[in-house]
Structures are given as structure tokens and as C-alpha cells.
Amino acid sequence: MLLRLEGITKRFGSLVANDHIDLEVRKGEIHALLGENGAGKTTLMNILYGLYTPDEGRIFWKDQEVKIRNPRQAIDLGIGMVHQHFMLVPVFTVAENITLGKEVARRNHLLDMKEARRQVLELSQRFGLEVNPDDRIESISVGQQQRVEILKALYRGAELLILDEPTAVLTPQEVEELGKVMKRLVADGHTIIIITHKLKEVLHLADRVTVLRRGKKIATLDAAGQSEEELARLMVGREVVLRVDKKPAEPKEVVLQVEHLHAKNDRGAPAVQDVSFQVRAGEIVGIAGVDGNGQSELIACLTGLRKPTAGRVVVNGQDVTGQSPRRIREAGVGHIPEDRQKRGLVLNFTVAENAALGNHRAFARRGVLSYQKMVDEAKRVISEFDVRPPRYDYLARSLSGGNQQKVIVGREILRNPKLLIAVQPTRGLDVGAIEFIHRNLVAERDAGRAVLLVSLELDEIMNLADRILVMYKGQVVAEVPGHEATEEKLGLLMMGGGAGA
Amino acid sequence: MPEEARWKETLKQGLRTFAVPVLATVVGLAVGILCIIVAGKDPVKAAQAFVQAVAGSPRMFGNVLVSTIPLIFTGLAVAFAYRAGLFNIGVEGQYLVAQVATVVVGVWWTPPQGFAWLHPILALAAGAVAGAIWGGIVGLLKAWKGVHEVINSIMMNWIALFLCDWLLKTYLRPDNSRASSYDLQETAWLTQGLIPGSRLHTGIWIALATAVVVWFILFKTSLGYEIRAVGYSPGAAEYGGISVAKALILTMAISGAIAGMAGSVQTMGLNHRFNETSTLVGYGFDGIAVALVGRLHPVGVCLAALLFGALDASSPLMQAMADVPKAVVSIVQGIVILFVAAESLWNFLQKRSAKKGVPAA
Asked: What is the pLDDT of residues B123-173, one digit of tens each?
């Protein structure tokens, strides 16, 4: 037994984040820590890594009781952690970042970067974590940055590697890569704890899984032989419908018509090239693609946040090409934006004030706002979309990510748009919230609205969309009927492959 | 009793909001006392002098309010702009151009018989418009070309200073034997003597009314909603169909108008003319401090203006009675500003002491 936690308890004021949690991790296994947001997974691992001190409980490392007071001690024991938000120096090179804090120095105390590079290269080859030691962090992809973080932990001699939501920022291909790397690390005698709320990953990657719910340990199981449904039930504490039941779509009139649209990205390079498609009332059209293939720019053009360089956008027969966000909203477009904290909400506004965002003039008479009306609207959003805590006077900042998203989704849906554009509507949310939002999107479709869904999650697209458009390098390279889509097929198209494009 | 509970909550929030400024004031005064002791003066005497200067007689209190009036305006001007995320350092310039505009209307326009009451109103409006233009230019350049408002408004201050100086020397005075403009016609004067013996004038009502209007605009109108949304999150504002450019220009214009009213009221209530000046007068910079100490809220701004007004008004008497150098007052002001501005430091310390009180996501 490599690691044993006994009765770990951690309280934050009145909140019990970890309630007498026992956990055993065997040497050489991949152990998944599964739970919804706020279940206490990260808190538990932060305790193990010395970032928090537990209020109760004991930690045994290789059958010796240890007290871990800070990350330094954790590292010395052989515990490494890769946080969800990377902690790298952007202007340093890969090698400099990896050796930072444990630099290779010559006798005369000068840095020996040559030796450092060699060591980094050796490590990276040994585990198949390909990086270029001379690249600057700011110039490499997020997936590569994650590899640097893992190498950093290995460089410090980590035997146990804690990965906090490692796939949240990765493309499907990078997830695949990460899986291989993890297998190789384990084969080499390392042990891995992976924090996640994604069921697929658990089944795909882990040997054993421990489920946490509301700070309590629910069960530890062998991953083999488990089903997604069973894990979801343990995680949420009730039956969860993973697949949304939906009737075949009954598309009616065209609501959104995009014709030969072109747009540039922030750097002035072409990002959207000659994109044409339609979305009809009563159908969900999904846009699939690896992040950065023009989806963001396309949506920005459709919602007025970016001016297209050529082409036409018609909503409900009304030409709205290059119009302001306000005009486009008035034409009947609802928008669940990609970035809920930068776009979708004013975090320092109350829930009531946010309930009016995008439509605040409707709450005003002769320029004077009616707060009562805003409060009423917020109450409607809160009750129909189950926002918790149900307080219209709380700042949006104080809500959890899932509840922030519910405020946005509720606000946009309750305005009865003709076209609902939903971008990554469930990113970072837990199973319960995802189920809820998915059901609502399908209900919108059935109510006769046109829904345009953009997502990086293939599951989400395949689950919801009646037609799927695949974007690659700024173009729509294929259209696949929803019921014919498979992960392999879409994955291939997303990489620019596929003959029938 | 949900109504009562809500009241309590609001009150608690208010207390929390003002805890830092009040604490900073206390610390500032303590440091001031320390300075007085170090300088070898008698702190008790100094305190007596301060109390007497502030509340020794109705006349004294009246003079404190006289010092408070321009600070309310300039504090409101800075706070208003700040709500949209704009740092209006150009209050100085807006103040000056407004004074000239007020002088023009106050000297050269004579109200028709029976319309004397219109004179101060028009003179005030002229100042507000001049300030609005001066501030609006800054907002326009920011919205149009992305010129940073801090740089730009500092430049506008100097342009205003020398423009006004040139106007004074060329057009506004009879000849160069006079260091100020023509006097305003008496119809344009604000009534003085609200407190007998002091120079307290009706500008105080205009200042307080302006505070109410600013509060109303910010928190009760859709314009205020837009301005605050832009200030908190330009991205979300844009998403919500708010024109960020329009909000920036309007905010700077309104902020400039408020700053302009400071100049107009000062001219109509106190000076009755435009005095030659070779430097910026400083009310604008004090306004920044007032806005910060007042937590960008109109009520807070009025209280902070009163504090700074009291410090200003009391310094001559403290010098006379307790031999406390004027610099000590500046030190106290500086400390207060420092501590309020260092609020992030407070928050940081608080978080550290409660380090384990914040669950990581």
C-alpha cells in the first residue's frame, strides 16, 4: 500500500469539505477520484499535497504515518501535483520551467543549462512526453504545457502523481495522448491519482475509482465492469439520464441563413472561410471541431461581436450582417456565450441585474429602471432553472459555475428567442447540471425554436444535434446526420480527414 | 420580518463597506498625532485647535462646509467616471474651463427684468457644458482611437490651464493692472451667509443635490446600468448589447460636467471672478482621494469630502494655535489615502489570516 488516508476531515467554517474520508492507493495503479464540483476532491488532494492542514485524520505514506505541512514536504516524500491551472513562468523555456527550484548548477553556482536540457530530454523521451526544451511556455499549446507540468513533477522525483482535472483543457486527441502517457508512467512504477468528474475517463483510464459526494466517501470500486450509469448514480446520489430522450426533429421554416461568410481572427488572419448553412425551426444543428478552427469567430459574427469581412447572415428573413449585438438580439437571437464569466455575466452585478443583461431597456421606462421588474424576472429564472442558492440579491460572482450557467441559460431561454445559439453550454459543469441543460435545449427545439450548438465535447454534439457540421481550418468540411455520427467518423473529419467531405 | 432582515443586511453591508475608510481615517489621525509629537508640539493643543476649527462655533463649521463644497463635486466627478472603469485625472482642467464659461455668462449676460433667478442657473449650465466638452473630448479619443484617458486628461489639464490664462489676459479683464477677471454681476452670485458670519453659500445645496442625482443615475437608470456594466466587465456589456464606446464618451462628459459645476459654484459662490493662476488648483486631485476614501459611492463621497474639508479648513488655526505646520495636515491626508488605497492589502491580510477559510474550487 503506497498511501493510506484515514478519517480525513476538513471544515471551512460551517461547511464540511471532507467528512472522515478513508482512501487507499496501491502502488502502480491509476486511481480516479470521482465526484461533482464541490464534492471535496480537490480539497482532499490539496491536503495530501500540504496546501491545507486537515482538522482530523491521519496520512500513511508507505505504511509510515506522516504529517505534510507544505508542498515542499510532499515533494520530498515523492508526491507531485499538477493543478488545474498551470503554474508555469510564461517567458521561461520548457527546460527552465522544469528545473525551476531545483536548478542544475555547476560548482561555481552558475546554471548549467546544457545539463538541464539533457536531463529534460532524457525524461521526456523515457515517458513519451514529447516537449522541446528550448520552447518558451507562452508559445506552446495547453496540451504541451500540461506535459511540462507532469515532467516538472517527475523531475522532482514524484512517485505519486496527482492530476487535477487534467482533461478539462485538452482536445480529444490530446486526451488520447495523455492516456498513453499515464499507462507508460504506471508501467514504469509510478502511481497516479486523477481527479475528474467525467465518467468516460474513469472507465477508460483508471484501475480503481473512489466516489465522493458532498464531502463523504461513497465507495471505492474496481473500474473494470462498471457502467457510466452506475458511476453517475453513485456520484449524484440518484438515477441520472445520460442520454437525452428525444423524438426525431421536425424542422420547419429556416430561421438562420448563413451565406458565404468570411471573417478574420484577432491577429487578422482568415478564421472563417466561405461558410454557408441553415438552421431551421425545430432542429438542433451542432458544430463540431477541435478548438481554434474558426468556431469562436463564426459565432462572434452571428451574434454581432465581430464584423464579418464578407457574406451574409439572415435571421428570420432579416439581414443582420455586421449589425450590433443589440440589433441582433432584437431580431430574436438568444446567445449562451462560450465564456460565462467574461461575456455572459457581469460578475459584480446581482443575479437580478444579470437577469436583465442584454435586454435591460425592457426593464426601464423613460430611462428609469424598474428594479422590481428585474427582481421578478430573476425569480422566474431562479425558480424555473433551479438556481441555488435561490437569491436574486447575491452577486453573480458568489454562485458556483453551474449555477452561473443556469442563470445565463434561463435568462436566454425565458426571453423566447427564435434562434438560440449555445456555445459550450455545459463546459466545466457536473453531471446533474449537464443533464438539466441538455433537457432544456431539447425542450427548446421541441417548442419550435432553432438551436445552434457549438461544443468541443463530441458526446454532447452526438447526444443533442439533429445535424452535425464539422469545422476544420475555418471551413465547414462535412455535414453528418445526427443518427449517423460516430466518434471515429467525427474525429477523423475534425482532423481534416475523410473523403466524403 | 423579512423587510427588517433586509434592512439589517443592508446596514451590515454598509458598515462593512465603510469600515476600511473609517479605520484608515483613525490610523491617519493617529499618525498625525505622532508627527505632532515628533515635531515637538503639543498634541493636546493641536487637537483642541482642530476641534475648535471644526466645531468651535457655527461660523467655523460654516467655513468647513465652504471647503467641503468643491470637494463634493470633484469627488463625485472622479467616482462617476471610475464606475465606468475610467480614471478621470482631468477634473482640474474641466474645473478651469468651467470657471471661464461661468465668468463669460456671469459678466456679459444681463438677465432681463424679473429673470434675475435665471442668471446663476445659466452660469452654472455654461460651466457644466464647458466641463462636459472638456471631459467628453477625453472620452471620445478613448472610444475612437483608444487613447488612454489618464495620459490624455493630464494633457487636457495643461491645455486648459494655459488656455484659460490666455483668455483671462486677452479678453476677460479690463487691463493688466488686475490679476483677475471682471467681477460677476451680482445677479449671478450665490447667496452667502447660510450660517451667519461664515461664507457658506447655497452651493452646498447644489452639491448635495448633485450627489443625489449621481446616485440616481448610477443606480436607478438604464444609463447607470450600462455605465456600471462597462466598468465591471466591458466584455459582458458588449455581449449584452451595450455600446461600450457610447458609454465611455457619455461617462466622461457627465463626469466633466460635474467637475465643471465645481468650478462654476466656486466662482459664483465664493470668488465672484476668475483669478489668475499659474498652477492647477488641486481640487481635482483632492477629488481623486475623496472618491477613493468615499468608496465611489455618493454618500461616501459627501462624507469623505467633509473629512478633507475639515482638515483643510482647520490647518490655519492649528498652525496659529498649536504651531502645527501645515504639512502635518497633508501627511494625515496622505496616510488616509494610502490606507484606503491599500485596501487590497487589507483583503490580502484578511485572506491570509483565514487562509484555510476559503475552499479551493
From this structure: 999 999 999 999 999 999 999 999 999 999 999 999 999 999 999 999 999
Does residue A303 sit at the B interface (CB-CB below 8 Å)? Answer: yes
- Residue among B8, B216, B232, B239 with most chain A CBs within 10 A, to mutate: B239
Picking from A197, A266, A328, A357 by the largest number of B CB atoms within 10 A of its own CB, the best residue to mutate is A357
A51 and chain B in contact, CB less than 8 A: yes
pLDDT, residue A492, reads 85
Closest C-alpha to B69, from B202, B161, B184 = B202
Q: Do B232 and A52 touch (CB under 8 A)?
A: no
Query: For residue B174, is the peptide bond before it cis, meaning its omega torsion is within 30 degrees of 0?
Result: no
- Segments in chain B forming alpha helices (H): 2-38, 43-55, 58-83, 91-108, 118-145, 149-167, 203-220, 222-232, 234-239, 244-266, 283-293, 298-322, 326-341, 343-353
Domains and CATH numbers, chain A: 3-236 (3.40.50.300), 254-332+417-494 (3.40.50.300)
State which amino acid sits at residue A69: R
Look at residues B247, B181, B259 and name the one whose alpha carbon lies nearest to residue B218: B247
Report CB contact under 8 Å: B239, A361.
no
- For residue A380, which of A397, A361, A363, A398 has the smallest C-alpha distance? A363
Question: How many domains are contained in chain B?
Answer: 1
B84 close to A (CB below 8 A): no
Which residues between 226 and 255 in chain B have a beta carbon less than 8 angstroms from any beta carbon of chain A?
A: 226, 228-229, 232-233, 235-243
* β-strands A419-423, A450-454 pairing: parallel
Q: Write out pLDDT tens, residues A181-205.
A: 999 999 999 999 999 888 888 898 9
* Chain-chain contact of B222 with A369 (C-beta, under 8 angstroms): yes
Q: Does B352 touch chain A (CB under 8 A)?
A: no
State the pairing for strand pair A3-12/A56-61: antiparallel
For residues A275 and B246, what is the distance between their CA atoms, to the nearest angstrom? Answer: 32
Dist. CA A428–CA A425, nearest whole Å:
9
The CA distance from B277 to the nearest CA of chain A, in Å, is 41
CATH number of residue B109's parent domain: 1.10.3470
> What ipTM was estimated for this complex?
0.84
Verify whether the Cβ–Cβ distance B222 to A364 is below 8 Å.
Answer: yes
* Structural domain of B105: 58-306
B110 assigned to some structural domain: yes
In angstroms, the separation between the Cα of residue A485 and the nearest Cα of chain B is 33
User: Over the stretch A269-288, which tens digit does the pLDDT of each residue have?
Assistant: 899 999 999 999 999 999 99
Model confidence, pTM: 0.80
Residue B139 has a CB neighbour count (10 Å cut-off) of 29
Q: Do B241 and A46 touch (CB under 8 A)?
A: no
Q: Is the Cβ of A329 closer than 8 Å to some Cβ of chain B?
A: yes
Q: Could you tell me the three cell numbers for A374?
A: 428585474
- Give the model's pLDDT for residue B1: 40
